[in-house]
Design a protein that fits this description.
Blueprint lengths: L5 H33 L2 H24 L6 H20 L3 H24 E5 L13 E6 L25 E4 L8 E7 L4 E5 L2 E4 L2 E2 L2 E7 L2 E8 L2 E8 L7 E4 L4 E5 L9 H4 L2 E2 L3 E11 L13 E2 L2
Antiparallel strand pairs: 1-2, 2-14, 3-4, 3-14, 4-12, 5-6, 5-11, 6-7, 8-9, 9-10, 12-13, 14-15
Length: 301
């Protein structure tokens, strides 16, 4: 937009958010200072309720409408609630201090847990069948490839590159929502797909047929040091294709090879777009009218 590159655009967004946060904090401090001098506790409660409802609405909007990243929002909530707690302590008002502390602790703990350790995610499609099914709730290990605050961008510490066979969670170049796929190609690799079989730098990924029913086949593949299962539809035709993975890019494919929207169609994934790895299934909930199930709980291969 307006001829700006991605980094410049992100910088402008960060500066804008910080500016809005600064104005909000100054307004809050000034308003509470005036109210506390007049000892109008009812107005204080109204201000706190308004802020709480606003933050709750923003969080729900990020979750259900935009599938957005809550990292910045949780950080803002932590800062605002911390300032409330400090205002209460300075003004020697135990009610405001307790309210601020009551908000700050959960906001900050969730921010640390979700941003740097684990983030929950629900599988929305069957592109990773047979391993991951629609409705599986998984934990995304956020620190696999390094520590970072946002979903996209380079890690700020402990950076590590994705490896062949990883079940990666990332933001694709054409969408703002997270995708889950299998990493097949690294920078410099030549990926070929012929007769429903993948080749990496001319070497085939070994397959072993496990089962066949109607037009559905389940294969076992050996990727580096892990054994995975993939799914193929025999009635789907595959035309030979080949890709050369550029520097700083990666090639990802769904385990449901004939029913997956992946790098074969929309291209490569930049290194900075990886959020982490799909590490664990902790619950399955196939539909709203179904009962949650814990039968599939376990580590993701």
């Amino acid at each position: 937009m307006f001829g700006l590159d991605k980094d410049t655009g992100n910088l402008i967004i960060i500066i804008s958010v910080l500016g809005i946060l600064t104005c909000l904090c100054l307004w809050l401090l000034r308003s509470l200072n005036i109210i506390l001098k007049n000892h109008d506790i009812k107005k204080v409660e109204n201000y706190l309720s308004w802020i709480g409802v606003s933050l709750a609405f923003l969080i729900l909007l990020m979750i259900f409408v935009t599938a957005g990243d809550l990292g910045i929002l949780l950080l803002v909530g932590s800062i605002v609630s911390f300032l409330l707690m400090m205002v209460g302590l300075i003004a020697k008002n135990t009610e405001i201090a307790k309210t601020g502390r009551g908000w700050f602790l959960p906001f900050f703990l969730i921010f640390i847990l979700r941003t740097f350790l684990f983030e929950p995610y629900q599988i929305p499609s069957g592109s990773m069948l047979p391993g991951l099914k629609v409705g599986d709730f998984i934990l995304v290990k956020k620190f696999t490839y390094g520590i970072k605050v946002n979903r996209t961008g380079p890690p700020i510490a402990f950076g590590k590159d994705p490896e062949l066979g990883d079940v990666v969670v990332f933001i694709p170049p054409h969408d703002h929502r997270p995708f889950v796929k299998r990493l097949i190609g690294k920078p410099g690799d030549r990926i070929t797909y012929i007769n429903k079989k993948l080749y990496v730098n001319g070497k085939p990924i070994n397959q072993k047929l496990l089962s066949e029913k109607d037009n559905l086949r389940i294969y076992e593949e050996l990727l580096k040091d892990r054994t995975i299962q993939i799914q193929q539809i025999t009635s789907r035709i595959n035309y030979p294709e080949e890709w050369e993975v550029p520097k700083g890019m990666y090639f990802v494919v769904g385990d449901n090879r004939d029913n997956s929207n992946d790098s074969r169609y929309w291209g490569f994934v930049p290194r900075e777009n990886f959020m982490g790895t799909a590490d664990y299934i902790w619950m399955s909930w196939e539909c709203w009218t179904c009962a949650p199930s814990f039968k599939r709980v376990g580590k993701i291969n």
